[in-house]
Amino acid sequence: MNSDSKYAIFLIIVFGIASVVLQTTLSPVIEINGWHPDFVLIIVLLIGKRFDSVTGSLSGFFLGILQDSLSPLPFGISALSKSIIGYAAGKTKRFHFEGIINYLWILFLIFLNELIFYYFFQFKSLLSFDTLIFSRVFPNTLYTTLILFFTMIFIGKYFNEDK
User: Fold this and answer.
1) Other CB atoms closer than 10 Å to residue 116's CB: what's the count?
2) What is the dihedral angle through the alpha carbons of 140, 142, 144, 150, rounded to the nearest 10 degrees?
3) How far apart are CA 136 and CA 35, in angstroms?
4) In Å, what is the CA distance from 17 to each residue of 20, 106, 154?
5) Tens of pLDDT along the chain (163 residues)?
6) Where are the chain's structural domains?
7) Which single residue of 15, 35, 81, 162 could bond 117 by disulfide (Cβ 3.0 to 4.6 Å)?
8) What is the dihedral of CA 156, 61, 113, 21, to 10 degrees?
């Protein structure tokens, strides 16, 4: 096992577990009108962008399963959406997006995660998909994006290529 793989496992264990703990403890506290940031998604995006699509997808799956096991939501929804987004984030590594294009792509991936999640969640909910898009998908996307920018200030250095 090379040092890059060991570093990926280290990041998944340390920041992944911390994000799941934050998701279960802090997210309900800072919830605004039912809108909440997705700390686990932030870490999956950062891992996918730092390493590759396989690492991003695997981290999305394992952290999503861990998140699903600690939440009352249907099992596997978070794992599915985060696996897809981790894979997509890893695929963007080859394009070397910079500046505003990078931020727009990340915003799109967060939106896509919420869209996939709430598409499957609608089958267990009494709300229609249209209602969920405007009442959950858009606000959660903006809230998660805002938290992502603050996260990058504090722990972004661990996800740079220079490590």
Assistant:
1) 19
2) -150
3) 6
4) 5, 22, 17
5) 899 999 999 999 999 999 999 999 999 999 999 899 999 999 999 999 999 999 999 999 999 999 999 988 889 999 999 999 999 999 988 888 888 998 999 999 999 999 999 999 888 888 888 999 999 999 999 999 999 999 999 999 999 876 4
6) 3-159
7) 81
8) -60
Alpha helices in the chain (DSSP H): 3-11, 17-25, 39-50, 53-69, 77-91, 99-121, 129-132, 138-155
Q: How many C-beta neighbours within 10 Å does residue 54 have?
A: 13
C-alpha separations of 8 from 73, 84, 156, 161 in Å: 28, 18, 14, 12
Report the amino acid identity of residue 62.
F
Q: Specify whether domain 3-159 bears CATH 1.10.1760.
A: yes
What are 109's two structure tokens?
């991936």
Tokens of 54: 């396989």
Does pTM top 0.70 for this prediction?
yes
